[in-house]
Amino acid sequence: MARQDVELKVEEVHHVARLARLELTAEEAQSYAGQLSSVLTYVHQLAALNTTHVLPTAHARPVCNVLREDETRPGCGAEAALSRAPARQGDFFRVPKVLDSPEG
Amino acid sequence: MRTMSETVEAVRHGELRVEAVARASLDRIRQFDPALHAFLSVDAERALHRASQLDQARSRAQPIGALAGAVLAVKDNICTSAGCTTCGSRMLERFHSAYDAHVVERLESAGAILIGKTNLDEFAMGSSTENSAFGPTRNPWDARRVPGGSSGGSAAAVAARLVHAALGSDTGGSIRQPAALCGVTGLKPSYGRVSRYGLVAFGSSLDQIGPLTADARDAALLLNVMAGHDPRDSTCAAEVVPDYVAALQRPVSGLRIGLPEEYFGEGLSVAVRDAVSAAVEVLKSRGATPVRVTLPHTPYATACYYIVAPAEASSNLARFDGMRYGRRAEGGADLLDTYTRSRGEGLGAEVKRRIMIGTYALSSGYHDAYYDKALRVRTLIRRDFDTAFKQVDLIASPVAPTTAFELGEKALDPLAMYLSDIYTISANLAGLCAISVPCGFDALGLPIGLQLMGPVTGEEKLLSVAHHYQQATDFHCRIPQAFETKEAA
């Protein structure tokens, strides 16, 4: 079995964490670098298989285009949804400001 | 101690009041759960209220449902409108669902009492229940050992007979592996057999809800109620639900049981191998024919799974952003900062690890080498089973390579923990049904599980073979000594 070592650097861990919207401490990033490298090295063994003529399976059961009539149905209601929010203002979810963020 | 099926029968005949059954269960939880920590929450008041409603209905000769008398626990990643649904996570520590899961609706309307919510690895990610933010569950057979996971609380609660049965969820073995490590019966239905509506999603193409029970008969009785079409889960199969209890009587003789050589190789403990081989001999004595089969892509299944499942998880768990419900971190400078802080605080180490593996496997430049590759390997694994099921009716194998390991033993080595799922994950990748049945004990007295896997919608055969095996053996009847008490109800 072909085994190719994957080595994830701490900067790459920070990059992935940013994509995943996860704040990591320096210690976390350090330990994840080692752990993720060993997991990625392990899963990389799939490269040994020739899959050029194999179609992907996204789902275990071939179901497609599950449709229903386009008609209104009762939902859980705005109050039930809003009452679980960490912060609300009237009939809205209250969130921190979006503008002036480094990522816009 | 009565099984669920026997209790339901006794209630139906007026020999037993539901309230007495519920009280007995609550007493056992009060007595034993402080040491086990199988439960995250118990709602005694609601359980007793429902019990007395059922007793009143029965006394007025009103219909009480096929499960009146059954006392069940629910894994805490399955939504209940009563009480909390925490997923074993700080992120959802005080989360109250606005609705019941489909299975919860079904079971309650059939008269079952849902007495509490059980502990799990956070968001069902783990094989030991050590990843719960609220502390681990202990194995009833040895408190220094893990109950398996991620449905470890459900398995321990059934093993200690705190409840008749419990619901679990199985994405890569999370029902079957804890069932094996705790010596109970655990069924993962075929993908699409049971609605996932109200199950907090981990790997949507892999997740299924199923029962952990004392025996195959109880599993069949619960599946009768749980299975069936639900338009709220678009992947839920529309096929007719057969009577799984009636199907238990189907003969074993003439069935061909496949033995995949790849499941009996390196890494399998001798005690587990011997117990599984002995179980196959029992099936043979009942008229089944063992047949050697090969599933050549098995060595790649774990690698395939640990790309597909984290990829789906990274997408599913993006919803936990602290905006509409769940934990929100204080003091974030702006929206993005609040997202990352809320998730950084609210999610545990293993969940973050899987989100990052999945995010990496889906990220620009790596998608083809990891995610797309894994989906193609998934096809090869599925085809292996298609070929095997042309020759055999069911496949027999171990559930886990070893019996229960000690708390902390694998906690610092994620890859070692992932490899404890090696025999169970293929059934999820291929969408098969599979069951874990107690088949012996090792030299330390720890339980061992036999896995039977069947083709998609093969539950009738699966349950009947498990039932016939349990007619011939008594491993499933044994309970850990510390939990033996005189019949309370």
Give a structural overview.
The complex is a heterodimer of chains A (104) and B (489). With 104 residues, chain A is mostly helical. Chain A has a domain at 1-50: Glu-tRNAGln amidotransferase C subunit, N-terminal domain (Histone, subunit A, Orthogonal Bundle), CATH 1.10.20.60. Chain A has helices at 10-19, 26-43, 78-82, and strands at 88-89, 92-93. In chain A, helix 1 (10-19) crosses helix 2. Chain A is 32% helix and 4% strand. In chain A, strand 1 and strand 2 form a beta hairpin. In chain A, strands 1-2 form a two-stranded antiparallel sheet. Chain B has 489 residues and is α/β, with parallel strands linked by helices. Chain B has one domain: Amidase signature (AS) enzymes. Helix content of chain B is 39%, strand content 13%. Chain B has helices spanning 4-12, 18-36, 44-59, 102-109, 152-159, 176-182, 216-226, 244-247, 270-285, 301-316, 335-346, 349-362, 368-391, 414-418, 425-430, 459-472, and strands at residues 39-42, 71-75, 113-118, 165-170, 185-188, 208-213, 256-260, 289-293, 394-398, 433-441, 447-454. An eleven-stranded mixed beta sheet of chain B has the order 1-3-2-4-6-5-10-11-9-7-8, with helices on both faces. In chain B, strand 7, helix 9 (270-285) and strand 8 (289-293) form a beta-alpha-beta unit. In chain B, helix 2 (18-36) runs antiparallel to helix 3 and helix 10 (301-316) crosses helix 12. The radius of gyration of chain B is 21 Å and the shape is globular.
